Amino acid sequence: MFGVAMDTAPHFTSPTKALLAGFVFEEPASAATQDTLARNERLGFRCGGLGLMVRYEEGSELSELPAVHRLPNSPAWFSGIVNLHGRLMPVFDLPRLLGTNLSSQTRPFLMILGHDTSAVGVLIDDLPRRLQWDSQCVVSHDGLSAEAVQVLGRAVEIDGQVWFELEPAYLRRRLEKLLGADA
Known about the structure:
CATH superfamily: CheA-289, Domain 4
Number of strands: 11
CATH class: Mainly Beta
Oligomer: single chain
Largest sheet: 6 strands, mixed
Number of domains: 1
């Protein structure tokens, strides 16, 4: 129609294919990378002297403790509700639930675990820190309360301190169950 034969018409490439042209994605195979993969990294924080850790993607926010609105007839370990960015969020005092107390030396922080509607707030003693450990650091759960054993995962020793893995989704289900039992 415009003087171009059908077999000589230009071929167009999709924008995504054009942008990725020339890039090759390969998995690194170096020994340093394999050593890094053998290590675990977590976000560690203290709750009543108890070292807890979560995966980085599970800790969604950290803030100074806003006004907590206590609900009548709720258990002591359920601190109440906060308004965080226009959303109501439950706040829990894990040390009280697990049989320890928050450090009275500093004002507690609010750590948000989880995302969207599954997010919960927990009171923590101080700022979180980065933890790295490998399988040789795993230790036993000796000396924990029965409730703590039900909520906490594996324990690791890092620089002479024991840190317990916390799974926010499991913690939320457990807290909901406990709140339902108290109702």
